[in-house]
Amino acid sequence: MLTCREVIEFLDDYVAGILSPARIAEFEEHLAVCPPCIDYIASYRATMELAREALEAPAETAGVPEELIEAILEARKE
Amino acid sequence: MRAAEPGRSPTSPPDQAPETAESQLLLRLRSGEEAAYADFVRNHMPRFLAVARRLLGNDEDARDAVQDAFLSALKGLGSFSEGSRLSTWLHRIVVNVCLMKIRSRKSKKETSIEHLLPTFLPDGHSREPAAPWNLPSEEQERRETRVLVRAMIDHLPEGYRTVLLLRDIEELSGEEVARSMDMTEGAVKVRLHRARQALRKLLDPHFREAAC
């Protein structure tokens, strides 16, 4: 059976859905007896989602700096 | 949701498909129409200024990078291939300008990430078993969480932070990140996984359910 170390080592491929069916079966065998690894995977996925939410949010409210736009358009003519 | 509607000009009819608006904008740009340059810059500015702020971490450098990127794009319109999206092409230019800036200021040695990675007992079991997380559901808490997460991302060593941003936020492929950062794809993959694990560890004390 896989160890916690092996599960966490291949976790990025597991989350990306690119593990082979045989490897997925090994993962699931481990997860069936290891609640902390289930929690680790859930928090790893949550980390990815929280990072996306945190970093995409400023774009929604970012203003348009007119002086920067003007500077670019002026510099283009030079 | 992204702020800007790529390819949609402020003068485009509201029901026009972005692709159509973009090809019309391209025609106007290539014909040298002055208003088209302003539309192009104004339309894409919010999204790409946000990209540059994320990658460079401060407003001054981000503004410089965006200015360089737009000027480079406007001068290089002749090399833009019709088969791709203007916004995608501009995104690559912005990212590359930001990476050049990061490389030029990177004089100090990269800090280690080892202390933020999981550790294991000799038999392969986790030394610090994970516990469930309690994530906020109220909007006020979620706003505070976004501030916290941004601060924790800033704690990551720059090389790891950059890979995390390029892969998970900017959604570049492993191959594109490898080419942009002069690394192998394998090294990008390892660095991304470590960056996520390190960020998870930094967030863990804030979300871990209290033990009964």
Verbal overview:
The complex is a heterodimer of chains A (78) and B (212). Chain A has helices spanning 4-9, 11-16, 21-31, 35-61, 66-77. Chain A is mainly alpha-helical and 78 residues long. Chain A has one domain (4-77). The longest helix of chain A is centred in the middle third of the chain and has 27 residues, at 35-61. Chain A is elongated and about 65 Å long. The mean pLDDT of chain A is 90. The N and C termini of chain A lie far apart (67 Å). Chain B is mainly alpha-helical and 212 residues long. Chain B folds into 2 domains: 18-105, RNA polymerase sigma factor, region 2, helix turn helix motif (Rna Polymerase Sigma Factor, Chain: A), CATH 1.10.1740.10; 114-207, Winged helix-like DNA-binding domain superfamily/Winged helix DNA-binding domain (Arc Repressor Mutant, subunit A, Orthogonal Bundle), CATH 1.10.10. Chain B is built from 8 helices and no strands. In chain B, helix 2 crosses helix 3, helix 2 (34-56) packs across helix 4 (86-105) and helix 3 crosses helix 4. The radius of gyration of chain B is 21 Å and the shape is elongated. The two termini of chain B are 39 Å apart. The relative contact order of chain B is 0.10. Chains A and B meet through helix 1, helix 4 and helix 5 of A and helix 2, helix 3, helix 5, helix 6 and helix 8 of B.
Main sheet properties of chain A: none
- Rounded radius of gyration of chain B (Å): 21 Å
- How many domains make up the coordinates of chain B? 2
Task: Give the H and E element order of chain B.
Answer: HHHHHHHH
